Amino acid sequence: MSDREAPRRRVPGPAKPPRPRGAVRRQAGPGARPVRRPGGARPPVSRPLRLGSPRPRLRLVGLALTLVLLAFVIRLLQVQAVDASAYTARAEQNRYVVHTLAAERGEITDRNGVALAVSEDAYDITADPTMFSAEQLKIGDGPEKAAALLAPILGQDQATLVRKLRPENRSSRYTRLAARQTPQVWKQIRDLKTALAKKAGTDHTTVNVLSGVFADPSSQRVYPNGDLAAGILGWVNADGKGGGGIEQELDKQLSGKDGKVRYAQAGGREVPTAGSTETPAVPGADVELTIDRDIQWAAQNAITEQVKKSRADRGYVIVQDTRTGQILAMANSPGFDPNDLAKADGDAMGNAALQDAYEPGSTAKVMSMAAVLERNVATPLTHVVVPNRLHRGDRLFQDDIDHATWYLTLNGVLAKSSNIGTILAAGELGKSQPAANKVLYSYLRKFGIGSYTGLGFPGETPGILAPPQKWSTSQQYTIPFGQGFSINAMQAASVYSTIANGGVRVVPTLVRGTKGADGRFTPAPKPRQTRVVSAKTAKSLAQMLESVVDDEQGTGVKARIPGYRVAGKTGTANRVDPATGRYRGYTSSFAGFAPADNPRITVYCAIQNATSGNYFGGQICGPIYKQVMEFALKTLQIPPTGAKPANLPVEYKP
């Protein structure tokens, strides 16, 4: 053999047993099962459980969580960014409460500072309706139970309170149950509320149904003198606004300006730590009137007694300072008590002295005489023949008494209040009756007839005075003696004050001035003055008016005042019934001033439709004039002049 290694020889092994027929021969190779060997079955081998892949499920859960978080993020962005201001405002609205701070209404005083109308502490009883819901109280009839407790205290209908405590607007958090209640009323409610709260703290079956009831400080209008000067003062209505008189006319100055307070609350209580804002209220100004309380009392007492005695519809008395035009008293009867409007008669709640329009009667003759004297048509001593009857136009005129022919001076015509004599004298004002009418009309207007007095008082009437071209045939002759046109009582008083003031008309005033919150007094503007007739004419008229009172033939003898010279004039006019528009009854009146030679005070009295006893003005109003004038002279300490009267003649011998 060569050096190469010789190939190995394969030694044959024992022969394999023959394969059974039909047996499959297994090829050896990767993954081939081992050949089962004879000799019995092998024991079974346990195989591991094979699971599906977790990745799809994890992806699904992750996607769901992502969507949920995305929804929260979007909502958060909406709340904190997009709708932030709206939600903030809503939260503020629910959390913060705004209450009005009522301004204190100014006082009204007389000329001496005596209080006539004041404001006292009071409370507006309020509630938060949301605190009466079933969710809050855990009972369904909370408003009914609360109303049952409050109704007798507040004097209100129970059903009305229920409607306020359960409003249609469920989000409403404020309602006013009663305005301007006394401190005693609020104390009753507060004590009841406290008692319920204590009981609810120990007894879980008790519910404090008054937990949502509160009180806002307010004020209540009080009139210390009752019905005194009620027609002037007026009243304050349920909304705290002036409802009549000075309260209404000067409401803006008196009421001031309300303030506001805003604070956080929880459960109906203020949260001190949350802070608050406040706009202080500005109190109203005090108003000082020109009237004197004592003189007002004397006038009101006198007219009230006479109206009752005469069983009249009503009456009024005005007292005026002749020099300044200031009204010292303006009394009405019947009147009313502004402290108790529920019992007041609606017809008596105004100021009849300014609101009633009526025909003045013979007190207006002084204006005709003023025109006659100013135009130099006649003098107080001019002779006037007064027949028993006078035919003019379509009527036959007569005086209030049947008489033979009178031979009177012009002074006597006024003293005896002759209608016929006045017609004759006024007819001389022009070359024709229409011309005379125009002259008389011009003087009536100068005296203020047909115009507002200048007081600016609510409901005042300017009266009725038609232009002369529209005067009827009868009016041409009735207007000179006070029928056929209408006035109010203040206009009538102003006529006599004009004569007393030397022929200069001063616009009447009721307000002397106001005092603001700073305590500074601001006087009222000076009233306008207008000359109507000359001082000479005014002096002659004053002397003629003295004859009405002093002369035994005068119609005003009951107005005499011992020690004083008195000028005055009576009036008795047919009265137009406001209900039917026809003449029924009489208007009785008296007007005058004193001292006659140095006038200081004017007093005017009128009574409507006296139905018991005498109805002549000199008989029922003359005594009132005397009573009120005497009191005013003493109150103002006005002494007699001591000068002797002129004693002008009333008659002459033909």
Question: Key features?
Answer:
elongated; 654 residues; single chain; 5-stranded antiparallel β-sheet; 7-stranded mixed β-sheet
Query: What percent strand?
Result: 15-25%
Shape: elongated
Q: Report mean pLDDT, rounded to a whole number.
A: 88
Total of DSSP H or I helical runs spanning 4+ residues: 20
Radius of gyration: 50 Å
Q: Sheet bearing the most strands, described?
A: 7 strands, mixed
Based on secondary structure, the structural category is alpha+beta
Poorly predicted residue ranges = 1-9, 22-32
The rounded distance between the terminal residues' Cα atoms is: 214 Å
Find the count of extended strands (DSSP E, 2+ residues): 24
Give your account of this protein's structure.
This protein is 32% helix and 20% strand. The chain is built from 20 helices and 24 strands. Strands 2, 3, 4, 5, 11, 19 and 20 form a seven-stranded mixed sheet that branches. The protein has a five-stranded antiparallel sheet with strand order 13-12-24-23-22, with helices on both faces.
